[in-house]
């Protein structure tokens, strides 16, 4: 590599692996490439996600839809170290996900610095929701609900099947005026969707400080931070808020089967996950690999919940539970 060139690492994968690969790139090569003025210091702009193959309505086209995650590394000793860590990390990931080998090439710095934005396109999820990056134009269809979402360092790009299943469930369950609790909000995507579906009071929590920050930005980008916004989204660091028993018509948690089972049981010393549900309320749980669904269903039943619906995309399921008494 000569001066003015950067190393590009690119991995083509499905939406599920894309989240994991992006996280790896953000972890080892994050920190804001464009703001870095120290010559020779390698610090990347994290992950750049290219999702292509959508039709004019934002629907993925079969056979054409693909996701490529890229990151760019400056030359130098630190760059070499970052590259080594990323290659190590990708190897570990490939033991969990079937991802093809990374492709490496050098590109001219000025060629990618702004070009990457062209790759992140509006994407339709569920029936009416369209996720779109803030810099993209999108001509909304009459019934569309457009959510602006910029890829940041928090989970929740809309590419993961679990996020999409949650959005589909929210579309069915959220009624105007509802109060919604979003546990593990990540990018804030589900809270913004709930607000656009008419929920008026939303509490979003996450134990990861980066998520809390990214969620706040996305809430603002969607015009939901203003005092006169139609919905109020309160973002809190933490997990299940105390003092909100019986308060929410919809509770959504897209985390992982084991974590959900523990949250239902209160194993972490937390308020049990079913407590915040209002009478007739619905609990949407996702991030669950099919084989582990029973862990969550059993835990729910231990706390008086009945299984009301189950949605699946590839190996991932989302469960909707409600109190046995109102099932
Ligand atoms: N809601 C987003 C992000 C899901 S990723 C979406 O649907 O796409 C799961 C998020 O849960 C992560 O941001 C992680 O930090 C958070 N998380 C993990 N364990 C948690 C817990 N016990 N309480 C609250 N949040 C948790």
Quick recap:
Helices cover 28% and strands 28% of the residues. The chain is α/β, with parallel strands linked by helices and 327 residues long.
Supply the key terms:
Alpha-Beta Plaits, four-stranded antiparallel β-sheet, binds S-adenosyl-L-homocysteine, alpha/beta, 28% strand, single chain, 2 domains, 327 residues
Describe this entry's structure for a reader.
It is a single chain. With 327 residues, the chain is of the alpha/beta class. The chain folds into two domains: 115 residues, Alpha-Beta Plaits (2-Layer Sandwich); 165 residues, Vaccinia Virus protein VP39 (Rossmann fold). It has eight helices and 14 strands. It has a seven-stranded mixed beta sheet, sandwiched between helices. The protein has a four-stranded antiparallel beta sheet with strand order 2-3-1-4. The protein has a three-stranded mixed beta sheet with strand order 5-6-7. Helix 5 links the parallel strand 8 and strand 9. Helix 1 packs antiparallel against helix 2, helix 4 packs parallel to helix 5 and helix 7 runs parallel beside helix 8. The longest helix is centred in the first third of the chain and has 18 residues. The relative contact order is 0.11. Bound molecules: S-adenosyl-L-homocysteine.
